[in-house]
Write a structure and sequence with these properties.
5-stranded mixed sheet, alpha/beta, 3 helices, 157 residues, 4-stranded mixed sheet
Length: 157
């Protein structure tokens, strides 16, 4: 089995045995393009994402993970939504099966330069039209739809 396997609305998915708070950054440039990384373990394009470490806030986690995964420094500018769907689980090779728990923040670049990390094969800003033609997990597509809707309030679900 790969190091991780995502299941979404799959009746064959294993039962979750873990819940870990995590966050991601939806960073938009001045042209409306979105910062994305192509994940090395799946080949899918995704936002910078990670889990909290003891001693940090979720906001600090997202800023840290974005720097580690993309080379860019960001500041948080809002919240897109809270994503905790029990029908999205991630199974890891060590037996952990994690239920989704992700808060997606809006962020803006304040420094750094784009660099590829060990977790990705490519990092760049993609326009929404480009994102329609590349591999993106359905849960990330949901977040992209919520972004396009320009919601007045964060998504809760």
């Amino acid at each position: 089995m790969a190091s991780r396997c995502d299941y979404y609305r799959d009746p064959e998915a294993p039962e979750a045995n873990s819940l870990v708070p995590g966050g991601s950054a939806l960073v938009v440039d001045d042209r409306g393009a979105i910062l994305m990384q192509r994940r090395s373990e799946s080949g899918n394009w995704s936002f910078p994402v990670g889990v909290m470490e003891i001693g940090e806030t979720l906001e600090q986690c997202v800023i840290r993970e974005t720097k580690e995964e993309t080379g860019l420094d960001i500041e948080i500018s809002g919240i897109l939504g809270i994503y905790t769907d029990p029908e999205h689980v991630i199974a890891y090779a060590d037996g952990e099966v994690r239920q989704e728990f992700n808060i997606t923040f809006y962020g803006r670049v304040i420094g750094g330069r784009i660099e590829v990390s060990s977790e990705s094969t490519e990092v760049r800003f993609l326009r929404l039209e480009e994102l329609e033609t590349v591999p993106v997990h359905e849960t990330v597509r949901l977040r992209l739809r919520h972004h396009v809707e320009q919601r007045a309030h964060p998504y809760l679900g």
